[in-house]
Amino acid sequence: MLASRYISHRLASRQLLRRAHSAALPKLNSVDADDIAHFSKFLPSSAILSTLPPASTTSSELSPFNNDWMNKYHGKSTTVLRPRTAQEVSEIVKYCNERGIGIVPQGGNTGLVGGGVPLQDEVILSLGNMNKVRSFDPVSGILVADAGCILESLSEYLSPHHHIVPLDLGAKGSCQIGGNVSTNAGGLRLLRYGSLHGSVLGLEVVLPDGTILNQLSTLRKDNTGYDLKQLFIGAEGTLGIVTGVSILAAPAPQSSNNVILALPKFDNVLPLFVEAKKQLSEILSAFEFFDREVYELAVKHGQGRALNEEDVAGAECFVLVETSGGKREHDEEKLNGLLESLMESDTPLINTGVLSQSPSQFSQLWAIREGLTEAVSKEGKAYKYDISVPLAKFKEVVDTTREHIRSKGLLHDDAVKHVVGYGHVGDGNLHLNVVAANYTPEIEAALEPFVYELVASYKGSISAEHGIGAMKVHALQYSKSAESIEWMKRIKKLFDPRGIMNPGKVLE
Ligand code: FAD
Ligand code: MLT
Ligand code: ZN
């Protein structure tokens, strides 16, 4: 009975997939020379990059805006606009709405689901020129910044004030706070600081009709009806353009330590997590997992410094544990206590551990973990599945996918080279990466809907933190009910009746 229900679910999903692929985008207009002339009335020429006259940008100059970080998604936009103020954003959006021109908001273009590049020739509205900190209150820790501020620049700004952004990710050198909010990025600190739904206190958003919705609250508490800003956190630019962000920065830890632990088998990860939580309690700030195969890719492609052979021997996977606290001696005592109890146990959960002894070693250990994304993309073309599944199933998901690919005869150097897993154990978020020689329809057909069905069978989520973008529009029904999708569509229609905001993303 169970099996037949599963098969009928598969058939239903396949039909949904076919319908979705043929679904048309809303009927929108292309930018023409008259539109460029209009934009020139209120934007300086340096803010208009276009292959249309009178501008003279070449298509290769537009290439970094039209192609995504993975070089998997390719747009054909003729025009990139780079406003400096919310007022300029408003004028652009109002005009595009009247003309029926699609707009793709773009931050640092580090997204991994094809959300930040056009599907056709929509205008790209790049936020990079809106990059000022508006205010910071060192007493409350509340930071108000333009959406185009780069995440790392905000960290550098806060450092002398002894605060940190409550969000950290490998793309910090390029991604923007507006992009982070729009994707509801999770990253490496979520275990400690929670999601942006909690730490973002207010937003300034330009709506599709050009209205500037100023909700840049600097209040921690504000129960005055519907909390509209939550709608834009994770909306991936489909409801409006985030132009300003108010966020609660966290006090900078006085002491941070990290250690990479080598585990003989994956089964030890969960008991280790339980033990780490128990012994480290309030100072545990990250618990990140990566398997042996992806570690080898990090080493091969020069991410961080390789661990010693004896530390790696016999390891099936690794865990990076970070502590952040207020007192060095106290924190070190706790971490050392954990390591000693792990090593001295009759049934040790770990083989060895590499403990950082200096700030530079601390960064080197993190560089291995943070460099996995880059290592994978240097190795080949990555099919990236960013999923929430029960922690106990992380390995099963990776192994099942690998066996499925093998059964299709695709596990070899000319097709799929690696099936690897890493992710944020503390958040139940696995990054299943299938690394291929090339992106091909055959590999994609082998993976989808297979992976989505696997996730659904665990009642998981097909997008833990990267979003839906263009990649998973057709797969939303694996994680959202028909009623939820219908209400999402109604909300979209209410804000954006002409469908100009990031068309073809998130919703069909
Ligand atoms: P973009 O890629 O430019 O855009 C992403 C989406 O947001 C698009 O749909 C775009 O239209 C929309 N958007 C951007 N700016 C705005 C705006 N101002 N208003 C409205 N919509 C907007 N993600 C994680 O969650 N956790 C990680 O740990 C993580 N690590 C990464 C590591 C690497 C090396 C890389 C390359 C990516 C990683 N990512 C991670 C994915 C990515 O960095 C995040 O999704 C990030 O938040 C995207 O920010 P961005 O400014 O580059 O946005
Ligand atoms: C990460 O955790 O490293 C990021 O989400 C990026 C990725 O999935 O590769
Ligand atoms: Zn991640």
TrEMBL record:
| Family matches, as Gene3D superfamilies | 3.30.465.10, 3.30.70.2190, 3.30.70.2740, Uridine Diphospho-n-acetylenolpyruvylglucosamine Reductase, domain 2, Vanillyl-alcohol Oxidase, Chain A, domain 4
What InterPro entries is this protein classified in?
FAD-bd_oxidored_4_C, FAD-bd_PCMH, FAD-bd_PCMH-like_sf, FAD-bd_PCMH_sub1, FAD-bd_PCMH_sub2, FAD-linked_Oxase-like_C, FAD-oxidored/transferase_4, Oxid_FAD_bind_N
Mention any one GO cellular component term assigned to this protein in its UniProt record.
mitochondrion
Keyword Oxidoreductase, does the record have it?
yes
Domain FAD-binding PCMH-type: start-end pairs: 73-252
Alphabetical list of Pfam families matching this protein: FAD-oxidase_C (PF02913), FAD_binding_4 (PF01565)
Catalytic activity reads:
(R)-lactate + 2 Fe(III)-[cytochrome c] = 2 Fe(II)-[cytochrome c] + pyruvate + 2 H(+)
Cofactor dependency: FAD
Superkingdom, according to UniProt?
Answer: Eukaryota
| UniProt name for this protein | FAD-binding domain-containing protein
